[in-house]
Design a protein that fits this description.
189 residues; alpha/beta; Rossmann fold; 6-stranded parallel sheet; 5 helices; 6 strands; 35% helix
Length: 189
């Protein structure tokens, strides 16, 4: 990243920290009980996009979640062919970012304005556009990968212990979201 781009990103991070909601009260929710879920992710390639598509399909089929919205971010100037809008999927790219690398436009504004029960960040590294969306989202429970910069944004962070695998992140997030507020099994005693 060039020095000028790093300066722009630094200014964007300062703006993000300034705009963080101060009076937010998270509501932890088990994913099996949720009806409205959002997912944000970075699209490195078509394989990463397919992993997220398969996870959305799994959530609908196995848990019966009625409303799932996924927002992908591509670091390209234009959207790749496989990312064009489909039902339950939207995508943004560099042209949807302002000078500070803050996402803007109707797609992002509508996504952030929606009140989801859970929003899941499926990024493997810190990306300002995704962090901004997570921070400004009206979702009640924000979940994602552990990182120092996510401490002020997320309600629940999952430590990946150095792993850089999207399927493993999806599996870990799902596992822990199934444990949140889970009803204890009745005892046989």
């Amino acid at each position: 990243m060039k020095l000028f781009d790093r300066l722009k990103e630094w200014m964007g991070i300062r703006r993000l920290l300034r705009d963080l909601p101060q009076d937010r009260k998270p509501i932890a929710r088990n994913i099996a009980l949720a009806r409205k879920v959002a997912i944000v992710y970075v699209v490195e390639d078509e394989t990463a996009h397919n992993h997220v598509r398969n996870y959305v399909k799994r959530l609908k089929e196995e848990l019966g979640i009625s409303t799932i919205m996924a927002l992908g971010y591509s670091d390209e100037k234009a959207l790749p062919h496989y990312l064009h809008a489909k039902l339950n999927f939207d995508a943004i790219c560099q042209k949807d970012l302002n000078w500070y690398r803050i996402p803007q436009g109707n797609t992002v504004q509508n996504f952030m304005a929606e009140e989801y029960e859970i929003i899941i960040d499926l990024t493997l590294s810190d990306r300002l556009p995704i962090q901004y969306i997570m921070a400004k989202s009206r979702a009640r429970f924000k979940v994602g990968r552990w990182s120092e910069s996510n401490k002020k944004i997320l309600d629940m962070m999952i430590d990946m212990a150095g792993s850089q695998s999207l399927p493993q992140l999806i599996q870990q997030v799902h596992h822990y979201l199934m444990m949140v507020n889970a009803k204890p099994e009745p005892s046989l005693n």
